[in-house]
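hey can u check if this looks right to u? its 599 residues, i copy pasted from the old doc so theres a chance i mangled smth
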Amino acid sequence: MIDNIDTLTRKKILFVIIVGFVLIISFKLFSLQILERSEFRERAKENSLKRIVEPAARGVFYDFNKSLLVSNKPSFTMEIIPAEYDWSKNDLVEKVLGVKKGYVKKILRRKRNYSRYFPVRIKKDVPLSVISWYEENSPWLKGLTYAVEYQRDYSFGVMGSHMFGYTNEISASQLRKYKGEYSRGDFIGVIGLEKYYEKVLRGKKGYKFVIVDAKGKLVRRYLNGAKDLPPQKGNDLILTIDKKTQEKAEELLKGRRGAIVAMNPKTGGIIAFVSSPEYDLSNFASVTPAEVLDSLNNDPDKPLFNRASMSVHSPGSTFKMLVALALLQEGIISTSNTVTCKGGLQFGNRFFECTHVHGRVNVESAIEKSCNTFFYTYVQKLGLERLAKYARMFGFGRKTGIDIYEEAKGLIPDKKYYDRVYGKYNWTRGVLLNLGIGQGEIGVTPLQLAQYTSLLANWGWTVRPHFVYALRNKDGKTLKVLHFDTLRVNISRKNFKIVRKGMYDVVNRKGTATHIALPDLKIAGKTGTVQNPHGKDHAIFVAFAPYEDPEIAVAVLVENVGFGATYAAPIAQKIITTFLRYKIKTTAQSDSTGGVNAH
């Protein structure tokens, strides 16, 4: 009896288990087929439909006259489809590609978690000779293929390394920062215009949709390509640069350390921008060899350093126009105030030297002859705080905001600065005499000097320095003309007239740069020699032309050569004549053909 009851109980338990199991399975099937049907349909679609990315060409750079400066060219990338590739061909492929033994195996193993039917990049920027070899031998090289991509082309006669900048393969940290915007293997602007205008230059990737089987093998195009999205080229940049002038500036600084910045004082557009020595951007068009980077980083001349916008030096005597304007505007002097220069000025127990014995000079002739004694005398009445105020009005001591990120703000010292550095009672008014002639702790960049010269040329106003005039879309139509802030200084035109006349006399009367005077073109300028405790002095010259209606302002810095009049002034003259004479020629040609002059 008991055995019968136990048997009955076991049957009931077994029945309950079986029914429960059937119910669970039934519910799961119902859930999969009814409740979660749409979700799994999408997953199935994802498994069978694959999206292949097609890269977009970056926008290119033109000068103001629509001459190409930077473009794109095809670049061949060797790829391997792992499912079809014969690993025994590794030695042959590595020999042809010129890479170390084990190179291919290492990459394929690193990518083994990806679909075996999709290409793996093996080497970028493969020469055409390798592609020709592949085409001839492709029947015996199954699984080996190549893709045509783009890289920068710098073969248009202008180096422009510190202006253009370059791109590089995106890093892991950048991928995290720009999550969803970029993918592994994408290139991104690193410095210069490439970085500043990355968003408009990069374009939009295209997508090709294909059907694959469960193993990921390509079956066919999806809807015969009806849903494919072609890549969209990035917007082009039309720069304010003048190619002829840029080429001349690069030529003039070749073999020297220094910088040239030329700009249009009315528009703020940069006409030429050179930091020397430069470096070859073609080395950065694809993967940069480690030995090239090591060579550049270890070069004592620091070619990677942007001297045009980041090197900070004293302005020397080019600062005297600012001091003169401050003295005039504050009513401390007029053209009738004079000083008798006997070769310097005694201040306390120290004699501050002048460049020569100049005799009696007023503010105009003090600029013309670069008389230190005049400025030693009157800067004491101006005072440190007012001098700092006017220097900042002219844009010194802060970044100009030019459309590249590599820029230093320089230094304009004031009372707070000296108190902090030397202690409240450990500095004297003697520092002011050095500042009055542009020496001492004042630090400015060549770019700031070009902006300052533009303000002098244009009677106290200019536009923020910039490289880009407009963006142009893929159809060749101007998409957007860019606009930049205006900089103004509150100084009377009468006082500007006095100082500008002094600069005119520097070149055209009896000043320190009469050797660059021209009969058909009136240049106004100012020489400067920057004291250098580590070697020969640095030469500086600032200028604008034509004097009556300026169209170009230039700042030239040549390191470790000596006097500004000897080395920097002739360079500035050649930059000015290259730009203006070429412009006059192209204007005449445009007028004769009914065209429009670009500058």
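Residues 586-599 have pLDDT under 50 and may be disordered.
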